[in-house]
Amino acid sequence: MPDDDLHERIIDAANATYGSHGGRRALHAKGSWARGTFTAAPEAARLTCAAHLRGEPVEALVRFSNASGDPEAHDADRDGRGMAVKLRFDGGETDILATTSPAFLTRTPEEFLELISLRRPDPATGQPDLEKLGAFLAGHPESQTAVQAVIMSEPLASFATATYFSPHAFALVDAEGTRTWVRYRWHPEAGERRKPDDEARDRGRDYLHDDLGDRLLAGTIGFELRLQLAGADDPLDDPTAVWPDERELLRAGRLELTELIDDPERDGHIDVFDPARIVDGIELSDDPILRARPHAYSVSAYRRLGRA
Ligand code: HEM
After folding, report:
1. Residue-level pLDDT at 61
2. 30 pLDDT exceeds 80?
3. Ligand 1 centre and the CA of 297: distance in Å?
4. 20 to 30 A Cα–Cα from 195, which one of 37, 148, 173, 280?
């Protein structure tokens, strides 16, 4: 049974840290939307009977975002960036959510609540209590990969020049019931590029979102869906633990974005991206973070609809 109160408390903590912004997401509040097509490669269809991985082109709705809950965040801030993809096909839809960090911050939603609460700025100083934050991180060495990925990486040059990772394991299931455990990542066809902090800051608060629009006016943006195949002993339920680099990366398909679109969320309509929205041929792992996310996203979605 999900602890519904826990998910409410996580969103309360996000709102306390970043402020409540009517109609906006509690996290990943600043975003831009694009549309395109995803076409799976034959290698994917061999591993699963999932409808979107059979090889026919399917419609893609994509939202690029800044991980912060502040809709006015500067695009040069050292923070994660998100890429949420919704694939729609006859009879269904499924979502793949990824960020620029190869690992998540915590193993459990309870620890995430603790961490996000510690990031709340003290009204007197405008800064979080760095001593307490440091003590949390010292007690949780598994958080280091995600912290380093965010703090040590220079800002993106463009949303189109980053790799986006999903830290959860999903099983691809074929017609015989054989399971292949994988993690998703979106690899940019334009290559990976970052910018020095000052250069990024000089490009202006919304430079990543402006750049996305410019690129899509001038042409298309491509990403390859890659599946990292789990080794026999790789953890399937720990999003803080990256799998070794030498694991096979299977090319599973190509996403081509063709146009920037206006935020489709208006007049009571919202589009929620949910990593647990899967279809036949895909299964979720028992990762506690993956299992918690749909509940927290619902709380955030209800609040932005003004219903909670
Ligand atoms: C317990 C852990 C987590 C919590 C509580 C959490 C919470 C949230 C919330 C509240 C939102 C806004 C949802 C909405 O209003 O529709 C969100 C968005 C998002 N989260 Fe998480 N998250 C968690 C873990 C992760 C992880 C592991 C990833 C890595 C892939 C991730 C990637 C994203 C992305 C890409 C979005 C933006 C989705 C969009 O554009 O609508 N989150 N998260």
Report:
1. 98
2. yes
3. 7
4. 37
| Test site for ligand 1: of 7, 11, 12, 28, most ligand atoms within 8 A of the Cβ | 28
Predicted confidence band at 308 (pLDDT cuts at 50, 70, 90)?
low
The per-residue pLDDT for range 184-227, each reduced to its tens digit, is 999 999 999 999 999 999 999 999 999 999 999 999 999 999 99
Q: Is 209 a catalytic residue?
A: no
pLDDT score of 4? 65
Candidate CATH numbers 2.40.180.10, 1.10.630.10, 2.20.25.90, 2.30.110.10; the one for domain 4-304: 2.40.180.10
* Confidence at residue 3, expressed as pLDDT on a 0 to 100 scale: 64
For the stretch 50-54, contacts whose Cβ atoms lie closer than 8 Å and that sit 24 or more positions apart, written own/partner, are 50/94, 50/172, 50/279, 50/280, 50/281, 50/282, 51/89, 51/90, 51/91, 51/92, 51/279, 51/280, 51/281, 52/87, 52/89, 52/94, 52/279, 53/172, 53/252, 53/253, 53/281
| Cβ(51) – ligand 1 distance below 6 Å | no
What is the pTM for the complete model shown?
0.97
Distance (Å) from CA 237 to ligand 1 centroid: 17
> What sign does the dihedral 54-56-60-64 (CA atoms) show?
positive
Using the atom order of ligand 1, give the atom closest to the CA of residue 239.
Answer: 27
68, 105, 170, 297: residue to mutate for ligand 1 pocket, most atoms within 8 A of CB: 297
pLDDT band at 15 (very low <50, low <70, confident <90, very high): very high
Task: Specify the pLDDT at position 266.
Answer: 87
Q: Can you tell me the distance from the alpha carbon of 250 to that of 235, in angstroms, rounded to the nearest whole number?
A: 19
Structure tokens at 225: 């869906």
Ligand 1 centre to CA of 290 (Å) is: 10
